[in-house]
Design goal:
2 copies of one chain form a homodimer. By secondary structure, the first copy, chain A, is an alpha/beta fold. In chain A, the strands form 2 sheets. Chain A has a 7-stranded mixed β-sheet, with helices on both faces. In chain A, strand 10 and strand 11 form a beta hairpin. The first copy, chain A, has 2 domains: about 190 residues, 3-Layer(aba) Sandwich (Rossmann fold), CATH 3.40.50.620; about 90 residues, Pantoate--beta-alanine Ligase, Chain: A,domain 2 (2-Layer Sandwich), CATH 3.30.1300. In chain A, helix 7 crosses helix 8. Chain A has 11 helices and 11 strands. The radius of gyration of chain A is 20 Å and the shape is globular. In chain A, about 40% of the residues lie in helices and about 25% in strands. Chains A and B meet through strand 6, helix 7 and helix 8 of A and strand 6, helix 7 and helix 8 of B.
Chain lengths: ~300, ~300
């Protein structure tokens, strides 16, 4: 199992010691490191990512580092969760940069396996969540959440007892992973962290790197449209179709966007709001050039 | 969480202390007990069962007790793995007897949850093994191995790092569970144990209790037919169809049996034997009255 230790910045005699992070590529090495940490009485935080780490990931890692003794960041562009081969091929990759971000944010370990190491030959298993995985983003991207659930079950199996940190930008993913852990009795506590945004409101996403400057200028319109939806709810509108239409109309004023879907759901069940709903979530997906962006906002009623 | 301690036999002053076993019904209690055992440096053995324990189960427990410090037996008639509601309803149940068998064989813990405790409300997850779960018994009992894989993933999630013991009477189940552990990176070592048979050759099974005395007399014919198949292989026959026909003809001499299926496969892949096959397995399923019996035998070539 390859393992190398990387300093987040070059150290010199005049500087204090810099945080270091171990890069491991083997599953057995990850399991061993985290088993040893727990055996020494340390708690483990896990931050599963697909790499191309940005400030949103850094916030997850910093949060994990304040709550856990040892933080492991996993970097794996999981082919199972990609519906479109071109999307998988285009997904940004930058392992050296990821290691630097992870180290600076307080991680002790980066696990970056190859696809062969992760799945081996002839892997047959799929973890499916009937219902939750088939709606909203799951309907738009068939098999996506099965891929998420399968890789997360594997990562949790390797990591063992831990807290695992996920960003609310992928709101349905958080719900899927929570459900997964509950339904499979995995010894993992899921921690959801708020979406991190650029100054103009655009939710940080690895896919933002694929936007042209022209598209990047238009990108905050998605967040602005969701904010308008939240304002309508705050003003008393409760009809999901009316809110969806308002968000769609707002995004329609930015011609570079092509709306894929917008839904307002109960934030706890991700189903249509009902009499017991106290928290709503408005979720949208839209194409901007060749990039598909998602975002969401919550509102209490 | 209910927990009671049961002595395997009534103790008196003149007898030495009898083995005792703790009966737990809550998932949290099981997890806590096994976490505590490992924290104290003890190894854990898990024997998942559907109860109605017989000498085959006792052999698994005894083997686990020789290889592990603490043995937990799970007793749960898993509705997910039953294709037919009448089969589920008829499945024998005897928790008091199970606790006594487990204690006498060396278990320290019996975990016997209710269905509600095990699955909770609205559980959505299914673990599916494409290929392996759909063939042979999986073709005869749609969804059966998804149910097995799902409940085993949950039991392994609760038990944590352990060795888990399964009987080869359910040969394809062993293959499914091995594949599950490998594909999901679960920290579990699967140990397969030989089928235990009555003196007349009948493989021990909880379902044998459902046979009438008249049917029980006929039941060894299944094992005898499989032995004839093995003898044909030993005599040089390699054609799976010819072996299957020979086994079917042999079982046909016992009119109380109705053959469901017989297959000869590569014992490692459970696929059709090929040029690299070194171990064959002949597997059969047959109805005897209202009971469906399965059995299998191996032969090296």
């Amino acid at each position: 199992m390859a393992q190398r230790v990387v300093s987040s910045r070059r150290a010199s005699r005049s500087e204090p010691a810099r945080p270091t992070v171990a890069l491991v590529t083997g599953k057995a090495a990850l399991r061993r490191a985290l088993d040893q940490a727990r055996a020494a009485g340390r708690t483990v935080g896990l931050v599963p990512t697909m790499g191309a780490l940005h400030d949103g990931h850094a916030a997850l890692i910093r949060r994990a580092a304040t709550e856990c003794d040892v933080v492991a960041v996993t970097v794996f562009v999981n082919p199972l969760q990609f519906h479109r081969p071109d999307d998988l091929a285009a997904y940004p990759r930058n392992l050296d940069g990821d290691v630097a971000v992870a180290a600076a944010a307080g991680a002790r370990l980066v696990f970056a396996p190859t696809g062969t190491e992760m799945y081996g030959a002839g892997a047959q298993v799929r973890v499916h969540l009937a219902g939750l995985a088939d709606r909203l983003e799951g309907a738009a991207r068939p098999g996506h959440f099965d891929g998420v659930a399968t890789v997360c079950t594997k990562l949790f199996g390797l990591a063992g007892l831990c807290r695992a940190y996920f960003g609310e930008k992928d709101f349905q993913q958080v719900a899927v992973v929570r459900r997964l852990v509950q339904d499979l009795d995995l010894p993992v506590e899921i921690v959801a962290c708020p979406t991190v945004r650029d100054g103009d409101g655009l939710a940080l996403s690895s896919r933002n790197a694929l936007l042209t400057p022209h598209e990047r200028d238009a990108a905050p319109a998605l967040h602005q449209a969701l904010r308008l939806g939240v304002a309508r709810v705050a003003a008393g509108e409760r009809d999901p179709a009316a809110i969806a239409a308002a968000v769609a109309a707002a995004l329609g004023t930015e011609p570079r966007f092509r709306l894929d879907r917008v839904d307002m759901v109960d934030a706890d069940t991700l189903e249509a709001p009902g009499g017991r709903t106290t928290r709503l979530r408005i979720l949208a997906a839209a194409h901007l050039g060749r990039v598909r962006l998602i975002d969401n906002l919550g509102v209490e009623i």
